[in-house]
């Protein structure tokens, strides 16, 4: 009788252990998408800044692509798509070497925003590039003041307060000195400080800045009939583009603004000659 009771207990224990193992396996292989995860405000802000509908006017500029195409029409041995990819890599590398150091430094030291803006203006010899940077920077400042500021100034953390104060002071100085020597409103340093004010991580702020430039270039290529929309999306989704962006950000991560410089001087020539084209569909 005692042996039968012991057997029943052992069988029951074995059954319970089996059920426990099955439950652990189910938990281990559970689909993560079934679990709701709360998204931070910074994720929402990042999606806003990456939206192609953000009214910065970026897609009105080809960043020299239209001029590049016009000056390479005689190179029939190279396909338009292959030629675009050459320009694409040069343009992203140029943006990273000339603008990223100012973005990174403005994010780290928002109180230097006006100085960085002035330094970037002085180090941009190409008039067309300067005009495009200022137009987009002022547009971003307008978006912050009219749409974003109310939703992203509720935090009491010190970096955010410093960023908001720096943006406010810069905006007031820009309005006060609109027709005199003063702030210009370049995109890169303003992007860095506004991302800080929206509590976006620095690495994400840099990545989306470069990616937005890539999106604008690809959009210009589609409108210039170099490639179709599906090819354009393949370029943006490619691993090579992701690696290029990460590589350029990593390369410029510790670069000081005074060390920034143009790695592809020919881009300034293409940009500068844009206004000399007989006909054009882009502002630059």
TrEMBL record:
Keyword flag Chaperone: yes
Protein name: Urease accessory protein UreF
GO molecular-function terms, A-Z: nickel cation binding
The family this protein is said to belong to: Belongs to the UreF family.
InterPro entries in alphabetical order: UreF (IPR002639), UreF_sf (IPR038277)
Species the sequence originates in: Elaphomyces granulatus
Matches recorded under PANTHER family: UREASE ACCESSORY PROTEIN F
Keyword list, A-Z: Chaperone, Nickel insertion
Chaperone listed as a keyword: yes
């Amino acid at each position: 009788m005692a042996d039968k009771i012991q057997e029943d207990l052992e069988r029951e224990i074995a059954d319970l252990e089996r059920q426990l193992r099955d439950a652990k396996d189910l938990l281990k292989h559970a689909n993560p998408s079934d679990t709701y995860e709360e998204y931070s405000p910074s994720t929402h802000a990042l999606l806003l800044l990456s939206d192609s509908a953000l009214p910065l006017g970026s897609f009105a500029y080809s960043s020299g692509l239209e001029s590049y195409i016009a000056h390479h029409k005689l190179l029939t041995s190279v396909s338009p798509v292959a030629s675009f990819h050459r320009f694409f890599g040069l343009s992203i590398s140029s943006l990273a070497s000339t603008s990223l150091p100012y973005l990174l430094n403005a994010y780290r030291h928002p109180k230097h925003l006006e100085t960085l803006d002035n330094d970037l203006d002085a180090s941009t010899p190409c008039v067309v590039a300067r005009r495009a940077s200022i137009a987009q920077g002022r547009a971003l400042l307008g978006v912050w003041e009219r749409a974003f500021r109310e939703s992203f100034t509720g935090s009491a953390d010190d970096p955010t307060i410093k960023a908001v104060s720096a943006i406010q002071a810069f905006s007031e100085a820009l309005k006060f000195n609109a027709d005199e020597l003063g702030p210009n409103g370049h995109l890169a340093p303003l992007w860095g400080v506004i991302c800080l004010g929206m509590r976006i991580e620095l690495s994400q702020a840099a990545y989306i800045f470069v990616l937005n430039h890539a999106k604008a270039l690809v959009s210009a290529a589609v409108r210039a009939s170099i490639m179709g929309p599906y090819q354009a999306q393949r370029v943006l989704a490619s691993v090579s583009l992701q690696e290029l962006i990460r590589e350029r950000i990593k390369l410029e991560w510790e670069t000081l603004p005074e060390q920034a410089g143009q790695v592809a001087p020919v881009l300034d020539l293409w940009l500068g000659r844009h206004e000399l084209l007989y006909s054009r569909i882009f502002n630059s």
